[in-house]
Amino acid sequence: MTLSIWRYAHLALAIISSVFLVIASITGVILAIDAIQEKMPPYRVANFEEITLAQSLPLLKKKYAEISEISIDHNGFILLKAFDEEGNDVEGYVNVSTGEILGKPVEKSAFIQWNIALHRSLFLKETGRLMIGIASFLLVLIAMSGFALIVQRQRSISRFFKKIIREYFAQYYHVITGRLMLIPVLVIALTGAYLSMARFQLFPADTAKHKEIVVSETIPEQKSIGEFDVFKATKLESVKKVEFPFADDPEEFYTLKLADKELIVNQFNGKIESEVKYPKTLLLENLSLDLHTGRTNVIWAIILAIACLNILFFIYSGFTITLKRRATKVKNKHKAKDATYVLLVGSENGSTFRFANAIHEQLNAQGKVSYLAQLNHYQVFPKAQHLLVFASTYGLGDPPSNGSKLLQLIDKYPQRHKMGFSVIGFGSHAYPDFCEFAKQIQEKLSVQEWAVAITELFTVDDKSALQFTTWVKAWSQKTDIMLATTPALYAKKPKGLQKMMILDRTEISESEQTFMLTIRVPARTKFTSGDLLAIYPADDNRERLYSMAKCNGNVQLVVKFHPSGLGSEYLNNLKVGSVFKARLVTNASFHQPKYKAVAMIANGTGIAPFLGMIVQSKKTPVDNLYVGFRNESELIKKHKIFLDTQVQQQKLSAYQIAFSRAQDHCYVMDLIRKDAQYLAQLLSEDGVIMICGSLLMQQDVEKLLGDICEELNGKPLMYYKDKKQLLADCY
Which of 476, 436, 477 is nearest to 457 (CA)? Predict the structure, then answer.
């Protein structure tokens, strides 16, 4: 609950103030750059910090006939207002060591003045100043709530700068830059808010004034100003302005304005006639102005410019994070009360949803009644037989915001019948409490009378699709529901897709409705047969994967055409010379084993990777290939010619083709039964069987192989699976 309060407060404040903060940040960057450029002219005197008034004023008085004032700005430039010996007006930046005029003051450009007005008041005068002041105060609250969220995520202030796990660009750098820029952003916000309050006189006014000075009737003897104690003790760096007396009159004085006080100094003997300290509110206002503008220090001005840019990035990344969380839409064909399979997801940033949704879609595609919801939507599911919990852990062991109520809901709503459950935890080993929330769910469900564990607790590190498929295989085996086990199916669509070109293609076979593509990939791209080609036909997150062969350095696909099929129709529309974007996905779990005898089993388009593997067989030939089609076609005739060539070159021992719709109605299963003795011996001698094609075919083949292994080898098929002697890539 606390986490949600801080997060919603952080978001609400950002939404309310975002427009004003964007304007203030953009103009803030421009003004910070202007503050840096102001220091570029060479008007600052060497050893400025060491020069005193006693050293500089006598030289200036000797050089100029009459001086009205000198003022020192935030850049350390000394501006002189005086008259020369000829009575000419002099105003410029002066070198107090030589009396030389270094340059003239230049007014800020119209562009900078426009930005200053926009930054301060949005061109709305006092109303605009009030709005900017409120936005600055909201920025203080945003920074504080952001700090609280990071502390909550890291579990303590002492872990504030500990490692943050990168989930995606916006999330990672929102936190990283938030930690680095916290102090500068807070300074900008606090000083901006204070300056606005000072503008509206919200602080008590200090009416301290100089005391009345009693002037002597006799003119005292003139003492050299270089001997004045106050001038000897005062360095230029602490001076804001020195106003000179107009005449040699006892009623005229030097007015010395310093950083923290103002002095009235007798022009004859250097005595301090009156001293007034500036009120603390004014000192704080001046400090706020220095810190807010960076006008006194180049390095600080650069930091402020970076901080303003970061505020813009915070706005972008913050809304990106929010939209990403809210973009995960749950689509259900069935209602919760009708569901046989219930999938509950807990995810802070939405990334866990893609794993659950991939399972959800496969279950629906197989005719199962599946229902997908967030953890906090747990309730009584009257017809459910399986409960699948996909739970991420936020920060250091906390539940995600959409799963904070789950443990209480499990106690509140016990199921009314026995139900199998599986818990899959998502987290990162970089945190000490890896998948802690998933462990809590596992413990909670384990003690429920109605809950029966189908699998042990599975954990996934850093959203690893490969690790996730370990659970998929285990759950599929326990439930006899075949799900895809290719890791790339569960991986998210990446950026930076590669351009590829169609080199050759065949027409669609009428009997098999298949066609073959030869595709050129970018030079130096590393891949091998058995890897996958991932395409994005609708240019969205919908991915289609095709197992491929590597032939002469090119990708070769065998594709089955489905009318209105998203992937096959897209590929069929590509002509020779067409360029499209895709990516190659390493599928290491389906690479051809080295130095081992291999038997390959495929149906339909599943032959594609095997064609490439056979070509690549150098030291160890493929022992046998079993492949099933419906009818013979021109494309299959080409396959036979190719396979005959490979047999002649001793890269393939033999191949057998079954045609299910020919007169003999032969199936792949018949070929396997006929060679049962050979396949059992192959496995017993550490050989490998590879399967590629449809999930239904895989299920039938594995069932038959299981019977063969039990009967001839006296061992279950799982024994060989565990030894990685059975490899499958089916869809």
Answer: 436
